[in-house]
Amino acid sequence: MLYHLFEYLQQHTDFPGIGLMKYISFRSLIAAMTALLIGLYAGRKLIFKLQKKQIGEEIRDLGLEGQMAKKGTPTMGGIIILLSLLIPVLLFGNLSNIYVILLIITTVGLGMIGFLDDSIKVFRRNKEGLKGQFKIFGQIAIGLIVGITLCLSDEAVIREKTTSTAENSHPEIITENDHVSVNYFQDIKSTKTTIPFIKHNEFDYSWLSPFKGKAGETASWIIYILIVIFIVTAVSNGTNLTDGMDGLATGISAIVGTTLGILAYLSGNSIYASYLNIMYIPDTGEVVIFMAAFIGALIGFLWYNAYPAQVFMGDTGSLSIGGIIAVTAIIIRKELLIPVLCGIFFVESLSVIIQRGYFKYTKKKYGQGRRVFKMSPLHHHFQKEGIPALIKLPRRAIPEAKITVRFWIIAILLCAFTIITLKIR
């Protein structure tokens, strides 16, 4: 809102500092600071109200060290994240930008699904929460909205270099080291995305289409939409599974969000995109504003969510955080980097699938289920001891705070490697 107000004032008035709002760097910084301050203030107020109304987490005794001490800790803290994220975005973001609109829809949509799930758990005392099929249906609906919008919107394009004589080409003046040059670009609708370790590092979903011509183009976009739905569902569920320790999902998401913000800035800048030989995607600079607010909101929440946690984010936070990460990666055409970028979320989800699959297989074959991990998701494996499993290490349980910090370190290394992959090909 302030962005649009300042844009209007700049056209009709002239006073010092009014042009600051047009700079992505300034708006990103002020959005992050605003989100952090709102998170710190709202967190304290909301925790007090949740404690007063006795809206606490119901804890099942799984035999984990310090687990039962968390009983009664306020949950639904994801509201803090959503408030401190959306307010700066609405103030400093360009609300006419298609990518910002999609990210707001994702945040609100998945946040509402998570809030409904948390409400059932807390107020109805139903530990199962919202039925799994309804959660999946909501995630599919959000993925479908994102996929169809990116398919149909004329603003969701990639910009490729062309000649001045090409149809619909437009010039961009590039200034580098006092040297001015003019490059011509053409906006195209495309199902291309980035793939690591390949020389030209681009993959086109149209290659998966069995058809050619007009039918092939339609099939390509259908494949693309289905993949978007899968990614949104998978990442939001992966984040949800990772949210099992104080500060774990929050810290990792802030690290991943920082990386996505950097990639969005590089992708939206013609000079950096050309230098790194990555896809130039116009208007993704506004995604940087959103991710800056996202990081600020997470750090503000981490103030209260760090071990020992004063509040849990619940599904209200975890589902929306995962959706934001997924949709941002899709927008900047980096979704195929998610297994590396979000390696922790990926492995956590994989550990659950492997554990359940192996348990069912051995129960059917031997009459008694056996485990690969002492406990899943993976972070609980390191907390547990004395349970027979294929993977016996570590022999002794590791303290929760140490597991969290080690996972953060791994997340930093994975994010650094993700950025490096832009040049490894």
Overall body shape: globular
Radius of gyration: 23 Å
Mean pLDDT: 89
Low-pLDDT runs? none
Short structural description:
Helix content is 59%, strand content 7%.
Summarize the structure in words:
The chain is built from 14 helices and five strands. The protein is mainly alpha-helical and 425 residues long. The protein has a domain of 271 residues. It has a three-stranded antiparallel β-sheet, with no helix packed on it. It has a two-stranded antiparallel ribbon with strand order 4-5. Helix 2 packs antiparallel against helix 3, helix 3 runs antiparallel to helix 4 and helix 7 runs antiparallel to helix 9.
SSE order and pairing:
Elements: H1 2-12, H2 24-52, H3 78-92, H4 98-123, H5 132-152, E1 158-162, E2 170-176, E3 179-188, E4 192-194, E5 202-204, H6 213-242, H7 248-267, H8 270-276, H9 285-305, H10 314-331, H11 338-341, H12 343-366, H13 378-381, H14 400-420
Antiparallel strand pairs: 1-3, 2-3, 4-5
Helix pairs in contact: 2-3, 2-9, 3-4, 3-9, 3-10, 4-5, 4-10, 5-6, 6-10, 6-12, 7-9, 7-10, 7-14
